[in-house]
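User: My collaborator sent over this chain with a note saying "see what the structure looks like." That's all I know about it. Can you take a look?
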Amino acid sequence: MARLTPLPPSLPFFHPAALAATWFGAGLIRPAPGTWGTLFAFPVAILVGWAGGSWVLLFCSFAAFTGGVWAAGLFCRAAEKDDAPEVVIDEVAAIFLVLAALPMTIAGWTAGFFLFRFFDILKPWPIRAMERRFKGGFGVMIDDMIAALFAILSFVFLDTIWLILT
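Assistant: Without extra context I'll predict from the sequence alone. Here is the result:
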């Protein structure tokens, strides 16, 4: 059963940093806030991708990353945690990057979702190293962006193998 995590007392829900960091509350859903944040990014990605294409989605990834550094840093300071699980703007920026790079098809975007979540949860080297190396808002954001790059490269690799075999 899903439940909601309370916000830090010093950061009300309608504060811009709380709204951005939790992606309008998606990060407050338990269990698996990162997965919820990724899923809640899809409606925006679909609209942006349909209306503006991959380049606009790439711009949205950059904007979410830039704003996320600020919002995640402020939220984590208020929560007194290095990487508060409620912060999911990092997943949002990363999935926008993944979806901008992959074919705009149900199969492409479904594969992108699962590949990104796989690498975001598993955190192979150098993802975990980056997570440990950098602190604050940038540290919260950068490991997910590298997981996004792993997802993109894995998709390209698997797609190439598929084309060779079929």
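A starting point for your reply to your collaborator: The mean pLDDT is 96.
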